[in-house]
Design a protein that fits this description.
Shape: globular
Strand content: 5-15%
Largest sheet: 7 strands, mixed
């Protein structure tokens, strides 16, 4: 297996100090699969204090010292180095009551969740695979280490990790693991919503989100996590059609499972479309709030869902106003609409018409960006102090005047030059005084 030279250096320094050390977990799994290892974790016989002593010349971070983990900051990456440990009595279905350090890697591997994550590798000793992880990977089977029911009972989050791994790597849940999740699925309610959200977002974005939703539904986890949103109402094709960023995937979850015929679309009024979009956005925002997602994530998802009801601008002035309202989001909105339209509108005529409108709007945005056309107050060749110099008093009227001038520029009724804008402002002020 190939690991970064820097990671090998961390391993070597631990062993030169008299301790045993192995690469472990996901990094080993990914290398067995022939994939790049994202994060390289190391397990060792050294205690946390001993790890800190070995790397006294580097910066170390005590991120989980009570659980045996020290982060070692090297020039190119940060490595989690964890003491061999055995865990006892998971009293809250998530955290062990006690952590016992060990000098034997076998104790550490047997506490891990799945066989594919319980492999270790050393550049000289080779692969240590006590539970058949490599064989299970080859067979496409996700199997728990030891008794599946016990592993899930120890830590309920492992149920979501099982779904995430099975969907990401296109694996089947081993029968006893599947049964354990089904039997214990309601225990997911004991796990913090933040940790559940983290796992859910990863399974939506790491690959095969359709398979993830199916597995969540089949095991009962979906109903436990999303009582207000039946899994049957989530379009699997839509999930796979949109980009794999989190906002797009969550918006796809909240978009519904209905395809629309041409007649139905044409008969719906804009008010009905807007009401439907706002209702979907409201429901999804409430779900994300319950999971304590960031405000930005919620607002991004709401933006995409509400965009389904927006009439896309088809003239240059309209496009400039639209981009002024969403200066950083027009591209992502257009991309999202282009991705979902073929799924939502199966009939060729309406789908073609919709995609043509998206393409035309995109072309208008190109013109705006390439020509640097003004779209907001900050793009005007005039500032608030210029208006004060004309005799305006500080206050809301200054902002109102700037908005008026921007509208005149966007409508191409006024050149965006200081002289023209000042002249128009002076004329507007005189009109107000005479009125």
């Amino acid at each position: 297996m190939i690991f970064p030279d820097e990671a090998l250096e961390v391993l070597r320094r631990l062993e030169e100090a008299g301790y045993e050390a192995w690469f472990v977990g996901g990094a080993v799994r990914d290398r067995v699969l022939g994939r790049e290892a994202a994060d390289v974790d190391i397990t060792t016989s050294a205690t946390p204090s001993e790890i800190e002593t070995v790397f006294a010349g580097e910066r170390t971070l005590d991120v989980g010292k009570s659980f045996g983990t020290i982060r070692v900051v090297m020039p190119q990456a940060v490595y989690e180095v964890t003491t061999y440990r055995a865990e006892r009595n998971y009293i809250d279905g998530r955290h062990p009551e006690t952590v016992e350090y060990s000098r034997h890697i076998e104790d550490d591997l047997k506490r891990r969740d799945f066989t594919m994550n319980a492999m270790a590798w050393h550049p000289e000793r080779g692969l240590l695979d006590l539970y058949g992880g490599r064989q299970d990977l080859a067979a496409g089977l996700l199997r728990a280490v030891g008794v599946a029911a016990e592993r899930m009972e120890e830590d309920g989050l492992r149920m979501l990790r099982a779904v995430r791994f099975a969907s990401r790597f296109a694996m089947k849940l081993e029968p006893s693991l599947r049964k354990a999740i089904i039997d214990q699925h309601t225990q997911i309610e004991r796990i913090s919503v933040e940790r559940c959200y983290e796992e859910l977002e990863r399974m939506l974005t790491e690959g095969h989100p359709d398979r993830a939703v199916d597995l969540l539904a089949e095991t009962g986890l979906w109903e436990a996590l999303f009582p207000e949103l039946p899994a049957a109402n989530v379009s699997r094709p839509l999930l796979c059609a949109v980009a794999d960023d989190a906002a797009s995937r969550w918006a796809a979850v909240g978009s519904g499972n209905r395809t629309l015929r041409t007649r139905e679309v044409e008969e719906n009024t804009s008010a009905e479309r807007e009401a439907g979009a706002k209702e979907r956005a409201k429901r999804m925002t409430e779900i994300l709030h319950r999971f304590k997602a960031s405000t930005k994530r919620s607002s991004d998802v709401r933006l995409l869902l509400e965009a389904r009801a927006e009439a896309l601008p088809q003239t240059l002035p309209e496009a400039r106003k639209w981009q002024g309202e969403h200066p950083k989001d027009t591209r992502r909105i257009l991309q999202f609409l282009a991705e979902i339209s073929p799924v939502l509108y199966p009939e060729g005529a309406w789908r073609t018409k919709t995609l043509e409108r998206i393409t035309h709007t995109s072309a208008l945005i190109d013109i705006i960006e390439e020509s640097h056309l003004p779209i907001s107050i900050k793009d005007l060749a005039i500032r608030g102090e210029d208006l004060l110099a004309l005799g305006m008093k500080p206050g809301k009227r200054v902002g109102t005047m700037l908005l008026y001038l921007l509208d005149q520029v966007i409508e191409e009724k006024l050149e965006n030059t200081t002289s023209r804008l000042c002249e128009a402002a002076r004329r507007k002020l005189e009109e107000g005084e005479n009125g």
